[in-house]
Amino acid sequence: MSEITSFTQALHTGDSSRFYVLEHHPENGTLLGFWLYLMSDCLIFACLFAAYAVLGRNYAGGPSGAELFDLPLVAINTSLLLISSITYGFAMLEMQRKKMNTTLVWLAITGVLGACFIGLELFEFVHLIHEGAGPQRSGFLTAFFSLVGTHGLHVSFGIVWLVTLIFQLKRFGFTEANQRRLMCLSMFWHFLDVVWIGVFTFVYLMGVLP
Q: Which domain holds residue 176?
């Protein structure tokens, strides 16, 4: 009651020095909220994987995965994304050592690798559509484009977030907020790697089986 009385008196007198903060945002609230977001993303990808499991053999007289997928190209793309996860880990290590230049270099390398991944994925999509294997061709291709495309959108968003963080680091340095953002993006980036391993195994490797 005394805190509320003092706060009321300060409002009437205009004495801002007597204001009291009755509650504050918990320091780990951002990380907890981001974990909840990742769990919701897990549900989205789980639904897409389930849809692909149901429609993955519905070719409607069209081409199958064995006829369409270029595994060497997909393997290269997978390597790019996995290596980008390693380079982001190096960036986090340099952040802990408070080395700005090397942190920015590793983040830039991560962004370039992610952009190459998106570039190859777009090349694959354009090639499939040019061959008449667009998402409207069959249930299999609808599920394929939905799953792989959603993952690609997430990676694209991660690249935009990464570039934004690079500019924030250059301007404000290793503030507590920037370090927290880097940690959230690290979880997001590694999460996308895990999802892609599932896509590569469940969609591409199993898709070429007879």
A: 15-207
Q: What's phi and psi for 140, nearest 5 deg?
A: -60, -45
Q: Please, are residues 2 and 22 in contact by the beta-carbon 8 Å criterion?
A: no
Give the DSSP letter of residue 137.
S
Question: Any idea what the CATH number is for the domain that residue 167 is in?
Answer: 1.20.120.80
Burial 157-173, CB ≥16 within 10 A → b, else e: ebbebbeebbeebeeee
Cα–Cα distance, 151 to 110 (Å, whole number):
17
pLDDT tens for residues 145-159?
A: 999 999 999 999 999
Tell me the angle at which helices 71-96 and 100-130 cross, rounded to the nearest 10 degrees: 160
Amino acid, res. 118: I
Residue 195 lies in a domain: yes
Instruction: Enter the pTM of the model.
Output: 0.85
